[in-house]
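Late entry, evening session. Most of the bench is empty. Finally got around to the prediction I had been postponing all week. Sequence below, unchanged from the version circulated by S.P.
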Amino acid sequence: MVRMLVIIIIFLFIPGCTINNTFLLKNHIQENENALAAYLELLQGKRDAYDLKKNKTFTVEDIYYSIRNNEEYTLYDFTNDGVYELYLKHTFGTDIIMYKNDQLIMVTNISPYGILLNNGAILTRNSGAGHVTYRYYSLDNAGNEINETYFQRLYDETGETYLFAGQEYTKEKWDDLTGKYLSVGSDQIKWYDYNGWIDTLIPAENSQPCETLDIQVVKSMYTEFLQGQRRALYKTQPLGVNNTSIFSNGVTQLFNQFALYDITGDEIPELFIKNTELAYILACKGSELVVWRVIYPGDGDSILSNRAILTIYSPSHSSSHVKYIYSPLNVDGKRLRKLHFSKYDHDKNGEYDMFYFDEYDDDGVMEIVNQEEWENLTKQYLSFEPAPIVWQEYTGWVDALE
């Protein structure tokens, strides 16, 4: 009975539930409970799903073959059938998985340029030489694309042309026709980070790692991990010191440093173990060790003193483009938001002349600002000091942790 009440409460507060609540409670509670259990098993690597278009089964490892910072998931009932879909966002777009007849089915993939909107629709924005093309559509309860609409902005040295459904219009008329599509936001959709393992499908935002454990007990657990006697929950296989390595540029890199640092602010330290490419952050939850977060120093990630990650990198190793991502974390290591800002030097002479700030808006574009505005807006994020983590050499064994 308690479990049923919890499920009911979860469904009533998940955004996107636009169907009648009485109908949901009377007819779809069991179906939703089964769907949630199946989605959780998929994300824990315990269950396969079926790709409808490729006609083959797959695991979560096939989707998230490299657990990176941009991999997230959410639940949303965009189809309004009373059963929630699972949306898995990764480098190559967003996969949509539905629960049908006790099976998990991937029905489609949204391109990396696609945005899930509050009203249950999807908007994609592709830009290239001389055009910006928008595609707006919805899904039915079988995953078929319906209500599809195209509109474009074409431009060259002579000016701009505005097309809606293949018909040319004035800018004023085009703005009027496209307004109802471009004005829909996506702020009601809550994305959750996926680092390879979750205990519950919707993370508990206020849960505290190690909330009932003594600090010495926690350190003993970390020692056991570093001695190879304990593993941490992560991905489809537990993480141990014997498999904490990566294959990079043809060379297997073992982890050679570790540290204790209280990144959650609860006065109980987390265990960091890393090499030059990536780092695992381990925390204690109940009687288990879990991978709290994975970061990538080799790709520009650094941990700040305010429990945030600042990523600074040049896409495609371009010295003329510097991109920043500021990501504050909650106590579970989940990203609260992603703030993007960047600067470009089109002449590649070391003097930046284009500045962008703020998260992508609803049409996928960051705001252009001048240099003074950019420096004022980014100062608060770039002024935080790196976290004072003291690294120690790790050779595969430690006697004890102080």
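Two things to note before I forget:
Residues 1-111+184-201 form one domain.
Helices lie at 2-13, 21-27, 29-43, 60-63, 171-182, 215-226, 371-382.
Will write this up properly tomorrow.
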